[in-house]
User: Fold these one by one.
Assistant:
Number 1:
Amino acid sequence: DVFEQPQHVGHKKIEFHITTDIPSVLQTNSEKEEKNDLYVTTEEINNTGFGRIFPAPSSNDKMETEEEDDEIPSEFISRRELEKNRLSREEMEKFSVFKNYEPGDPNCRIYVKNLAKQVQEKDLKFIFGRYVDFQSEVERNMFDIRLMKEGRMKGQAFIGLPNEKAAAKALKETNGYVLFEKPMVVQFARSARPKQDSNEVKRKK
């Protein structure tokens, strides 16, 4: 019974084709591949150019591969996941931690605050690792996470990324992301050197 049903479906499909040699092809194939009738029928359909029956699956396949391309490294967070758990600008305004928020001057280091106490380095790697090409040794070495767990700096982290472009993208996509029920506040890290330079300029004036 199990094998008769798919064969029956196969014959039904063949009724649409106006060619004489197909039933014989199907018979020889079905004898050889009795256990794999689905393969036979799809092969017959392809041979006769009647692939139009299957537009939906092929477009789904394309969509799936595109999504997979976007999320190549599965050990890191997906863009969809980031967007889903990120606060909107209106929601951010309700949180005091985003009051007077300034992204800071672009550079390749990121400063993250308002982290929940259970956040670990691996959580930050999961999120920020997507902005690093781990196949490149240079980028891999530039990627650096420093999570503060004690003292006044608790709940804050510094993340070194390969370049300013990656840092800017990370800031844009992760600021307001809710991790362990707390939204992350993401800014460019401030380095001490530019401040000294500006002071020197002022003195010269």
Number 2:
Amino acid sequence: VLENQDLQDSIKPQKVEFHSLNFNTTLHWQPGWAREARDALYFVQYKVYGQSTWQNKDECWGISSHVCDLTYETSDIQEPYYSRVRAALAGVYSNWSLSCRFTPWRETMIGPPMVTVVHSNKSITVKLQAPRSPYRRKRGNKIPMTNYYDLLYQVFIINNLLDEQHRVLVYEGKDKVVKIENLRPGVSYCIVAKMYVPMLDHSSAYSSRQCTVL
């Protein structure tokens, strides 16, 4: 039988990390190295950097999952946060495992825009919609990410005749409707788009392809 100290060490959570997309923020960790650790329960706390007291996250207190949603606990997006996790098994508690410091505004990943494509015989009209945050206005609708950042849309066209991997940047800016003209009828074109944050020099992933034949 493992001594208590050994058990404490062997069930201690590993790799405690924040993951965040459009301010939807979760804490992830891996179980300790002991085989028994898969039966452990986990306890999560968080605080703003500089505060002395840790807050319990009630919904993640004594859970078997390795993920905890901290979206609303980290809603002051300019503040730096820490979180920590400990494990318990057979009445033995591990020490706390600490995350790195996490500042939502700086570190959240921004998702791609929604793209809708309408075609005529020689042009494509691209309609763009920025991703939304989980936070709501008083009227109840979700606040778009453009409220928090100076964002640009980047629109790329793929001419399937030439090369499916070759994306050509045809627009960068803030317009939500972009018209691409002088295209060849009968040719299959695909559109993908990204969000770009100039201030942080971050780009989102590409949107899913929207393809059309003129």
Number 3:
Amino acid sequence: QYATTGCSLTLHHTEKSKHEAVCEYRPYSCPCPGTSCDWEGSLEAVMSHLMHAHKSITTLQGEDIIFLATDINLPGAVDWVMMQSCFSHHFMLVLKKQEKCEGHQQFFATVLLIGTRKQAENFQYRLELHTNCHRLIWEASPCSIHDGVSMAIRNSNCLVFDTATAHLFADSGNLGINVTISMC
């Protein structure tokens, strides 16, 4: 199905649909979590789409930034999203708050590369929460936006913490996460 966009595999019809679901050449969906955006397009068009359709997303330049999630006490499921540009690539930083068990909320923080899975293998990210007395660090390779935030959470490829931990590191309901991107 994606031969016109670069896929050169020839598969038996029984394997076709399984491959198409994960094919690197399938169109990219809008990677912005928490929205009902139906946009699809090429990898080259993703940043343009985000800048025009999701103008509230802030983009910071540099390998080392602070991702500020404001008002983490908002009720219900909430997503905070920011972009980080460095090494000639764009990374989507996501903090997701959702209820996991009855009345028990968890936070999930991860980084996605606006790029392919192969490109994502070239990078590492580090998320750090800290106070004078406490430090919480997560290091991993980013996922591609082809995989998305849901897959990162499902595969535990993210920093996970509960509400009590969030409050330990928060300042007046705002949570600052140090984000460092490096090349492998």
